[in-house]
Structure formats: C-alpha cells, structure tokens
Write a structure and sequence with these properties.
Blueprint (H helix, E strand, L loop, with lengths): L48 E13 L4 E12 L5 E6 L2 E8 L7 E3 L8 E6 L6 E8 L6 E4 L11 E4 L20 E9 L4 E4 L2 E9 L5 E11 L6 E4 L2 E4 L4 E5 L1 H10 L3 H12 L7 E5 L8 E2 L4 E4 L12 H8 L7 E3 L5 H20 L1 H21 L25 H18 L1 H14 L3 E3 L1 H11 L3 H7 L1 H6 L13 H14 L14 H10 L6 H11 L7 H13 L6 H10 L3 H11 L3 H14 L5 H11 L12
Parallel strand pairs: 1-10, 16-17, 17-19, 20-21
Antiparallel strand pairs: 1-2, 2-7, 3-6, 4-7, 5-6, 8-9, 9-14, 10-13, 11-14, 12-13, 15-16, 18-19
Bound molecules: ligand BES and zinc ion.
Length: 639
C-alpha cells in the first residue's frame, strides 16, 4: 500500500488507524474507545495530520476539459507531525504553499492505477493552512464533460462530478477516505449563462462577476461530510421550487417535468423525519442530470443527483428519490468508515426507502418493492457464484480490489433483509426506536460493522435475540440465513397468475393487465421463461407496445428478453436505449447479454465503438471489461 518512493519519515506501519480518535468536535463519550478499521483505499494517515476543511477556488475550462484553481486545506495536527499525506489521482500539482505564500516541500509517491498516489506535503512550522495550486486531467475519472449535443438544450456544454467511491481524488487533492470527514466551501467561476450547483449551501442567489467576466458562484457545507460527497455540476441549469425547502434543478427543457414527477418530496421528508428524526441538512433539492449520468441517483448532501431515466411521467420510479433522501440519515449522517462496510450505507438505506414508500403509498405498494428487491438479491448471489461465495457476505474484505466492482445488490438487498430479520424478531417499534437513536448518537461519524453490532447488542438485542437473529451469520458469513422473513405481495401474486395463463398458451390480449403499475410489469417480464418464440414475443410487443415503453425499467427488462431471444424488431429500440442514456445499471447488463453470442458481440462492438465516448468513466470502465475493450485505447478527446 505504501508507495516505495516515499521518504522514510512518511512511512507508518499498516496498523489499525483510529479515524474517529482524530476527529475534533462533537465526540460522544464512547468514540475514544473505538478503533475504526484502516481504509485500504486511501494513503491518508489521519492520526498524524488530517484535513478538516477544504476551500476550493475552481474554474472549469470547457475547451480543455480541466478544472483549474486552488484547494486551501485546513489541517489538524496529530502527534509530532512533520507532514500530511493526501490522495491524488491524475492531478497536476503546480505549487504548494503555506498561508504566508512560502513554498512547502512535497512529494508524489508511486502511482497505482486505481488508488492514484500519495501526496506527502511537509507541514509549515506554523499555521494550519496549505494552499495547493493544481489542475485536473481531461480524463479525470470523476468528471464528465458533455458536449452541447449531449444535453437536452443542445446549446451549452455541461460538466458534473461523481465522487463515490474513490474518485474525488481525481478532482480534489484531499484525504479521500469516508472516515475522514471534512467541511468545505467553494468559489466556482463559470462562463456567462451557465450555472454552478454543489452539494452545499449556495451563498447568495445572484451570481457576481469576476475580473475576467466570469460568473461566480459560492457555496458552503458547514457539516463535516465524507469526501465522496463533494459534488459539482455546471451547465444550463434552471430551478423550480417544490416546497419551502425543496426543489428541482435541471436543464430548462426538463425542469417542469421533473418538478411534477417529484412533487411528493415534501411528504417523503415528513415520513422520514417521523421515523428517523430531524432532517439535518437544511434544504433538499434534486438535480436531474443529462442522460449520461452513470447512476440512478447519488445522495450528494442537500442536492441529490439523479438520472433523467426516472422521469417516467407517472411518478412510478420515484422510490429512487426516497432512497437518496434516506441516505441523508444512513450514509450521510452515519457513514461507512471504509468501503468494506458499504452495506451499512446501502442496506440500511434500502430498508429506510421501503419504510418511506410504505408511509407514502401503503403496505401493498412497499411489499411489491420488497419482493422485487429479493429478486435482485437472488440475481446478485447467482452472479457472485452462489451462496458459498465470499462475495455474498455483508462485511467484505476489499483489500486489493476496486470498491466499485464489489458493490453489488448483496450490500443493498441482503443488507435490507438483515434489518427485516431483526424486525421480525424484535418488532417494528423497537427497531424504529433503535434506528432513530443510532442516527442521533452517531450523527456525523464513521461506522463499522463491528461498532454497529456492538451498539445493537448494547441498545436493542438481548443475547437470546442475538442468537435467534444469528447476527454473526448475517453480517460476516456468506449466503442467506434461513430465518430471512418471507415477503409476500398480493399484487405480484396476481401477476404470477397471469404469467401462468400466458405460459399455458393464452394470447397477450386476454391477460388482465389494465391496473398494472410499472412494478407489476417488471415482475411479469422477469417471470417469463428464458426462451420465447418469435411469434409470442411479437404478440407481447404488439399488444403491450413494450419496445416503445417510456418507462426505462420496463424497457430495460424487455430488451434483456429481446436479446436473449434474438428478437430483431426490438433492436432499433435497443440501439436507441444504449446510445441515449448511460446509466450503468441498464447499460452493463445489456452489453453483457449481447456479449454472450457472436452476433450479439458484433452488434455490441459496433454500438460501443460509437457510444463509448458519450459514457461516464464509471460506465465505460465496466463495459470495457465485458467487451475486453483494449486497455490501450486512447481516451476519446470529446468526452
Ligand atoms: N450511493 C449510490 C450510488 C453509488 C453506489 C455510487 C456505489 C457509487 C458507488 C446510490 O445511493 C444508489 O444506490 N443508487 C442506485 C439507486 C437506488 C434506488 C438503488 C442506482 O444508482 O441505481
Ligand atoms: Zn444508495
């Protein structure tokens, strides 16, 4: 892990590092006793010296695809520190100075492909500020630069960042570990007519002008956040309020549709607060990005980033907003200390998401989501190689692995199922009281599985209940313990009856589907057999207009079936879907399905050759692996 080129004084043994011990404010009494695990995905040595605040002054250059400017870091010193180690990847460092303008010595260690390099900086004898003058590389993995043609408006370019899991270091030189929380502020200079938004409070409503004539936007995040939640987007961005403290940012052509799709967001916040305590971040807005955004959503604090593929027109896919909002408690308040416990963020969040949706739409609706989630869990276990695979554990050991590649639906759905199991043993009331206290007690702190379990044993579970739940097996062992509570949905059972009718030969037009929501459709499509004749596919398509569905989830499930059965009438829609959005959850499985046959591989390569430059690195890195895309392929210039 340690770079060999580092000077000797900078080396620390790879011992467990107590991240929480070096946190400053708001320490609960028991924090000191806990030594949190070492983060193998960061070079930082926070026990020696840690970053407490980042002050950015950045100018995006849309012609060269670079961010340029300074990061002014506030440092807190541990015992006898002579240096601080940051994480950097693909950054060009121009100078590093103290607050008085004196140059500070620094050294960039050996670079690893995924982790980047340690940047060791000699600390000034006095003062706790270092100022780094730097620029990002055009290929920075966190940043995507879009041409005007890749936006809805077609006139102005667009850029956005995606930090999770370990990509923030490609645009901000800092200690990029989720256990090292930092406040931040930023000044962003953008061309006239463009707007900058960040995961922080916007200071002032009107942009001012700098001496170069650029519009200046200022931001401040005064809560300590993990660095993966730093986020910036710049483009032709408009705003529509929804409630008093909520609203939507999007391109002007999209913003009204988005505001109507997300009109329930205030109800979601009310439901979440009733269950889990106050929303602590001030405003909650949603930014709808251009279609290349690689995720469904990203829980950037105060400003969820979301894909436009959830704008179905009928509010059928807004549980994604409930999910990202829920991260305001699980993930953003109480944060996985390292990526080994990614499930603490996502599993808890899926559980919260379904509880919020249950408040909003009722139990039958939430149960549909839960059943579909269980199906996702099963697929993830199969893909991991079956229930014996160590990749089906909740607590992982990601040493030497890309955290991004290890983030499967096991963390999401087995994680949620663990809390459902706890609920089935101790009852909802006790789980709710526990979670509310947990978010309050550990607010703004990192969390590990061990620490969570200890707190559960202390506050929620008797030794007999710990046994009955089999906490050990759930969290540390592969597979799914047999005490997982079943989830049943009457609505989806009714769909199963239609699937049976169809399987026994009924024509599509005779099926009773008129009251189906997108979840019933999804369940129906997933339940169809692997092999289907062309005439029956044509019957389904002509009756239900599946190839032209405006619901991205339904279209995706249908296209998987179409590829599996080489149903050519859907291929124009397939190509359109693969070239018009870059959400990895949709794009990766479709290429993977294509890659299973010779004809499909040819088609995949033809489409990918043309489309790869339009995808975010998160998506193209995944598809590269599926298609064995030559690693040496130069990065396309027009990203
Ligand atoms: N935090 C995740 C997105 C993420 C995960 C980014 C791993 C980088 C690495 C976000 O909250 C999420 O889970 N998004 C899901 C949607 C959700 C409804 C399951 C997605 O993007 O599909
Ligand atoms: Zn999530």
């Amino acid at each position: 892990m340690q770079a060999s080129t580092q000077s000797k004084t900078l080396l620390v043994p790879a011992l467990a590092v107590c991240v929480a011990c070096s946190q400053s404010a708001e320490k609960p009494a028991d924090t000191q006793a806990w030594s949190l695990p070492r983060d193998v995905h960061s070079f930082a040595q926070p026990e020696k010296a840690r970053v407490t605040n980042i002050s950015l002054d950045l100018t995006p250059d849309f012609s060269t695809h670079q961010l340029r400017g300074t990061a002014r870091l506030a440092i807190e010193r541990g015992q006898n520190p002579d240096s601080i180690v940051l994480d950097v990847r693909d950054l060009t460092i121009k100078s590093i100075k103290d607050a008085g303008g004196n140059a500070l010595g620094y050294k960039v260690g050996a670079t690893q492909k995924l982790l980047g390099a340690p940047l060791a900086i000699a600390l000034p004898p006095q003062g706790d500020t270092i100022i780094i003058d730097y620029e990002t590389s055009p290929g920075a993995a966190a940043v995507q630069w879009l041409t005007p043609q890749q936006t809805a408006g077609g006139k102005l370019p667009f850029m956005f960042t995606q930090g999770q899991a370990i990509l923030t270091r490609t645009w901000v030189p800092t200690q990029d570990s989720p256990g090292i929380r930092q406040t931040y502020d930023a000044t962003i200079h953008v061309p006239t007519g463009m707007v900058a938004v960040m995961s922080a409070e916007a200071l002032g409503t009107e942009a001012s002008k700098d001496p170069q004539g650029l519009s200046v936007f200022r931001f401040r995040m005064d809560k300590r956040i993990p660095p993966y939640l730093l986020a910036l987007a710049v483009g032709d961005i408009a705003f529509r309020p929804i409630g008093k403290n909520t609203g939507v940012y999007a391109e002007p052509a999209v913003v009204d549709k988005a505001a109507s799709e997300f009109s329930e967001v205030d109800q979601m916040i009310a439901a979440a607060e009733k269950l889990y305590g106050p929303y602590r971040w001030g405003r909650y807005d949603i930014l709808v990005l251009p279609p290349s955004f690689p995720f469904g959503g990203m829980e950037n604090p105060r400003l969820t980033f979301a894909t436009p593929t959830i704008l179905a027109g009928d509010r059928s896919l807004v549980s994604l907003v409930a999910h990202e909002l829920a991260h305001s408690w699980s993930g953003n308040l109480v944060t996985n200390a390292t990526w080994d416990d990614f499930w603490l963020n996502e599993g808890f969040t899926v559980y919260l998401e379904s509880r919020i949706m249950e408040e909003l739409r009722g139990k039958p609706y939430a149960d549909m989501l839960r059943v579909l989630g269980r199906q996702d869990m099963q697929v993830a276990i199969d893909e991991a190689g079956g229930p014996q695979s160590p990749d089906t554990r909740l607590h992982l050991d990601l040493t030497g692995k890309d955290p991004d590649a290890a983030m499967t639906d096991v963390a999401y759905e087995k994680g949620a199922a663990f809390l459902q199991t706890v609920e089935s043993v101790v009852g909802r009331q006790r789980v709710d009281a526990f979670l509310r206290d947990y978010f309050d007690h550990f607010a703004f702190q990192p969390m590990s599985a061990d620490r969570m379990v200890a707190y559960m044993k202390d506050k929620l579970l008797s030794p007999a209940e710990v046994e009955r739940i089999n906490v050990q097996a759930w969290i540390y062992e592969p597979g799914i313990p047999s005490n997982i509570p079943p989830v049943l949905s009457d609505a989806l059972a009714a769909v199963d009856r239609q699937v049976e009718a169809w399987k026994s030969g009924s024509a599509a037009s005779t099926l009773v589907t008129d009251k189906w929501t997108s979840h019933e459709w999804l369940h129906f499509l997933r339940a169809l057999p692997d092999t289907i004749t062309a005439s029956r596919l044509t019957d389904l398509d002509n009756t239900f207009r599946l190839s032209s569905s405006g619901n991205s989830e339904i279209l995706f499930a249908w296209l998987e079936i179409a590829i599996r059965n080489r149903y050519q009438p859907a291929f124009a829609a397939l190509e359109r879907f693969l070239t018009s959005q870059g959400r990895r959850k949709f794009v990766r499985p479709l290429y993977a399905e294509l890659a299973k046959s010779d004809w499909g591989r040819d088609m995949a390569m033809r489409i990918y050759r043309r489309t790869r430059p339009t995808y975010h690195s998160v998506t193209s890195t995944s598809v590269d692996q599926i298609l064995n895309w030559p690693a040496a392929q130069p990065l396309p210039s027009a990203r």
